[in-house]
Amino acid sequence: MAHEILTPAEMALVDRAAIEGGPLSGIDLMHNAGHAVAALILERFSGAAKVDVLCGPGNNGGDGYVVAGLLSDAGMNVALYAQGRPRVGSDAAIAARECPIQPQPLADYEPEAGSVIVDALFGAGLSKPLSHELCRIAEATSSRTVVAVDLPSGVSGETGVILGAAFRAAITVTFTRKKPGHLLLPGRDFCGEVVVADIGIGDRTVAAIGSACVENTPAAWIGHFPAPNINSYKYSRGHVGVFSGGPAATGAARLAAMGAARIGAGAVTLLSPSASTAINAAHLTSIILREADTLEEVLAFLEARRPHSLVYGPGLGAEADAGDFLLAMLAKAGGLPSLVLDADGLSTFAGRPELLFDALHRDGAPATVLSPHEGEFRRLFPDIAGESQISKLEKARAAAKRSGAVIIYKGPDTVIAAPSGYAAINGNGTPLLATAGSGDVLSGICAGLLAQGMPPFEAACAAVWAHADAALRFGPGLIAEDLPLALLPTIRELLPARQAERWNTVFGKPDAQTKG
Ligand SMILES: NC(=O)C1=CN([C@@H]2O[C@H](COP(=O)(O)OP(=O)(O)OC[C@H]3O[C@@H](n4cnc5c(N)ncnc54)[C@H](O)[C@@H]3O)[C@@H](O)[C@H]2O)[C@@H](O)CC1
Ligand SMILES: [K+]
């Protein structure tokens, strides 16, 4: 699976395994890495007046020496600035020896207009904040064209956190696979365009490391994406129940309902308190409306109509009674359908999250997806949210393990994690989604996919990706009401891709595995 994400530690293991397994040695890999960066610079910036290559003391610097030599051989005007000498016997020392350009001290470096800067100071080995001098250089280059080797120096490849300061790259060329820091904020913002170069390490060597994280792209879940078949009827295509709020807060549930319907659920029922029935009825056409004020009425609906998934939370109010009602439903209903908890359905458990987690860990508990944004995450997992040393990826994993649910930890860099630890980082997030009600639509999309039989982790990933893809295709001016209809071009590309995946399976590719 070429969409795995490797932490710097996993990448080091992959490099080591590749070198031990042969046929490429460490210096061969470094030559390949340098070639990839030099080729990109020649392709994109061949007209640059000058290229300034900044080399650090480790192997990231080693890549820089290779780049400098290749660009100079290609006729470009190259200057080399180095901080420290590579360790004797290292691959970087070989690369430095091979490089025909005499390095100047990095302390003398002043960026000039018209130069392209190659940041080969630190990559995977960044271990402490940049020094004052490096912070100054990073700041001085912030409006220049910077090509970062592997990672912009100062960005932690593991967490995406900035150590002191960081170079702001136009393009980052990384090797073999992306690292979390290329996708998690704020690191992602410093990377610019991320190019993944093949330096000769095979997919099998990467797979042997067993990374438990992927970039959230359709490749990660298309094999599970639901497609109706000729025998489908409305209930077999999936039935979603969405709980509506009171008369002043009914819109959120209708947004979720429309998200569920557009992603392909054959039937969606809005469960409405009687006080909201008139207003919901005035706004709904294809969505089924059912009055339900009491737990008995909800249980009767579940028994009679057997929905395949439920959305609980949007517009319900964060007071304790919303949580109490859910707990009562979880305690009473035998075989509750899968559940998406969002918004007030999460906030209602502030200060008492263990009541929810206990219920979700009980035998027979439904498969559940929790979709907190930053504030809701902090309400449910205050200690995990407060951990300053771990990444958003690790926080989502810890939350999934504790709650027993798939977590969609929302934000510009949404992370999806399963209780097993398997996780995905989303890369197509867009600020267009920062609009009221967009999260309600997401919960509906997720429930719509669950109702169609998609496993919870894959449904959560697909919902997050499709939601953002729809927003990107729609473009500026998007409001939450537009999102369900904006899903159409996305779905119309996903369905043929799903069909193609089916044919691949028929022709012998291994079947898609559930990662939840
Ligand atoms: N054979 C390999 O392992 C390959 C490695 N490659 C390159 O090697 C890089 C990793 O190399 P390294 O593990 O040597 O790590 P780096 O070159 O990223 O940095 C390690 C060195 O920097 C020092 N250092 C870290 N943070 C510092 C800071 N803030 N201020 C001052 N000094 C600091 C460390 O003490 C160490 O000497 C990758 O990012 C990639 O560019 C590629 O050439 C592909 C092959
Ligand atoms: K770098």
Neighbour order of strands in the largest sheet: 8-17-16-15-14-13-12-9-10-11
**Strand composition percent:** 5-15%
**Overall 3D geometry?**
elongated
- How can the largest sheet be summarized? 10 strands, mixed
Task: Assign the CATH superfamily of the largest domain.
Answer: Ribokinase
Query: Which second-level CATH architecture of the largest domain applies?
Result: 3-Layer(aba) Sandwich
Q: How many structural units, i.e. domains?
A: 2
Q: Write down the CATH class of the largest domain.
A: Alpha Beta
- Please count the helical segments: 20
Number of strands: 17
CATH topology of the largest domain: UDP-N-acetylmuramoyl-L-alanine:D-glutamate ligase
* Rounded average pLDDT: 95
Bound molecules: ligand NAX, potassium ion
Rg of Cα set: 26 Å
Could you give the topology of this structure?
Blueprint: H1 8-21, H2 26-45, E1 50-55, H3 59-73, E2 78-82, H4 91-98, E3 104-105, E4 115-120, H5 132-140, E5 145-149, E6 171-175, H6 180-183, H7 187-191, E7 193-197, H8 203-207, E8 213-216, E9 239-243, H9 251-262, E10 267-272, H10 274-283, E11 288-291, H11 295-305, E12 309-312, H12 320-332, E13 338-341, H13 344-347, H14 353-361, E14 368-370, H15 374-380, H16 382-386, H17 392-403, E15 406-409, E16 415-417, E17 423-426, H18 438-451, H19 456-474, H20 483-506
Parallel strand pairs: 1-2, 1-4, 2-3, 4-5, 5-6, 6-7, 8-17, 9-10, 9-12, 10-11, 12-13, 13-14, 14-15
Antiparallel strand pairs: 15-16, 16-17
Helix pairs in contact: 2-3, 2-4, 3-4, 9-18, 9-20, 12-14, 18-19, 19-20
This protein binds ligand NAX and potassium ion.
Potassium ion is lined by residues 60, 119-123, 148-151, 153.
